[in-house]
Task: structure prediction
Amino acid sequence: MTTPVLSIRNYTLDYLTAGGPVRVLQDIALDIAPGEVLGLVGESGSGKSSLAWAIMRHLPKNAREVSGDIRLGDTDLRALPGRDLTRVRGRRIGMVFQDPSTSLNPTLPVGRQITETLVITRGLSQAEAWTEALALLGHVELRNPEALMKRYPHEISGGEKQRILIATAFGCRPELIVFDEPTTALDVITGARILELFTRLRAETGVAALYISHDLALVSRVADRVAVMKHGKLVEEAPADRIFRAPQHPETQILVDAVPRPERRLVHDQPGERVLLAAQDISVRYARRRLFRPAPPPATQAVGFNVRAGEILGVVGESGSGKSSIARALTGLADFSGSIRFDGRPIAAGRAMDRQYRRAVQIVFQHPDSSLNPRQKVGEILARPLRLFGGNVSDVGRLLEQVRLPASFADRWPHQLSGGQKQRVAIARAFAAKPSLVICDEITAPLDVSVQASIIELLLTLRAETGTAYLFITHDLNLIRQIAHRIAVMRGGELVDLLPIDAIDAEHVHPYTRDLIAASPTPVG
Amino acid sequence: MSLSWILRRLLLIVYTVFVVSVLVFGITQVLPADAAVTLLGENATADALAAIRDRLGLGDPIWMQYLRWVGHAVTGDFGLSMRTGQPVGPEMVAALGRSLLLAFAAIALMLVVAVPLGVVAAVRQGKLADTLTSLVSYLGVAFPEFVTATLFAMLLADTLQWLPATGYVSPFEDPWGAVRHLALPVLTASVILVAHVSRMVRSETLDVLHSDYVRAARLKGLPERTVLTRHALRNALLPVVTIVALDVGYLLGGIIVIEEIFAIPGIGRQLMVAITARDLPSIQAGALIMSATYAVANTLADVAYAFLDKRIRYD
Result:
């Protein structure tokens, strides 16, 4: 057997906290063979990022390495003094980060940030590095590399930035590259292209890779082998195609089950015929024309759709496509032109919206951390809509139980709850008003897949109990195909498609819709 | 940064100065000071007062008086001082020059001391160097100017006899004498500036050192020195530009205590004298010149910031 590129043995890591040491990694053992891609999957807090930092020798100050070896080829990384580390980083291990927009220095032209790395890691002269950088950028399919090199990070798109970072990592010709969720911060289609690029470059260069992600479906497509982490332990390691077909460990089984599969519908009924909300020509504009300055284009342009009673209408599209602007318009958070009729009644825009409409249409936001007041206990948060819309404040406990939380949570502060629990509180707050339409704005995006699955299950149960309709905004096409009756596809502020769910594969769909479907990774096997 | 943006900024200066001119003129109108009485003294006859009011146009409507004043002011003519009978404009401009000299010297000294201090404190966060600079900073902020001024004067002028205690010498006449006379006031003014700017540099540097792009720069194998100079400092020092512009305002207006202690005839002190003597033309000229300088300094800072940080787009 050949020597592995990376070999980790019995590695155990603690973080020292005020409450004593906390075990983050326990007896980790893994090998990556030359040219192999190992996928590392786990939920947030499973320790996968800590393992990456341990390999890169960039652990936080309170980390204590308890035992074990990390070897890169025949170099013992743990024994390496700080001065020699710079010879390993970049040169022998590269890294590509989650968020390309924060990984580049905002005040240096991008070309400079590529060449400085090449000069250090490969000992090129400035002129050689410049030529090499041009070649690298061309190789990652970036158009007009000369012009690009002189641009600043804010002048190029997120996908272009990630291509530049990938080009830099490969350009240093390392033995191993660590990819830490490299497509999570990108929209679906851009992410899919980055993934194609990764596969091609990997095949060409034969460099070994550790690919970290929470997305089991995605990892199973790019990795040769997949390792699953849970609570700091490796629970299962298997070839990528087998992990989906025959997961051995119960934790893997949970992860596999939580991956949304479009062909497995979770909603089987049909909504009623009655139109609950009719929106016509909704245009949202955030800034007005000012002296010396033309008005910016509207965030959405004349968007129109209906929501029927009890219907789940999915709204998909990239970031910036205007999905959230629709949510803001419908809830009176943004002014708009156009008309809304609710239960046949015309509704005024913005602040003039009446109380009856505000009660009937509720919203749940993406980040429960910022939508729950940190200075109010859960009980107070839930009592407010009850008081406002004529409910009974003693119903707080019942509301909590409705979202499957113990009634005793009324006495807790938001920061004492997990992300999923907080999102349940936010959902309970929306349902306190007994709404007939709840707008869910990317509410599962910050959550782990298994938590996401349980939140979706909760929403469907609540719908069965109350008959509420949902306007479900998401970028996860696989998820929405499981639950929505109809799907609205948005792009650049316009509604490009509005389809019943069973027509989504049909011939006549918009080319953009087809691209979106093609870019959504579905699990292999 | 487009040309139209710079033009708009320049227009904004004009607008600011216009608003200030209306305020200044308005305030001097409601002040309990009668120009005629100030000029002729308390014992002037009613006829003489009426004659001079007529000559100065004090009987005209206020807006007419304002227009006349502004019309002259834009040509640099702020009238004659009621105290000395000399033209007010040149006197105030000369005083502004002396104040600006003091201000720029203080800012230069502050930058030389505060930036390295803040950076070292951030890099050695939690260590002895950090604790010491924090201590010195807080002491600097805690002492009012007249205390630091007195302490410096006692030590350097009185005990050691190195520097003259008070007075002002023009750098065009006696450069070395000017430096020696400016040393104490500059030292005093920069103490408080060093204190707050070094704190700010420290926290900005800490923020940047914890940013993703500094981590990325380290992990792509750059040596720590390159990471610090090329990636961290460049971004950490940007906000200093804005702070320096704000400090120009502080130094012009707030430095009056220092000008008073060290007997420097700067614009703050001249304005104080004018107010005590109810010398209306001097008050108007001083206030207007000070606010115009402040507006210009802030505009320069905005332009510099936009030039240094390409993310800022003004269009």
Q: What stands out?
A: The domain at 6-258 of chain A is CATH 3.40.50.300 (Rossmann fold). The mean pLDDT of chain A is 90. Chain A has two domains: 6-258, 275-288+297-371+435-519.
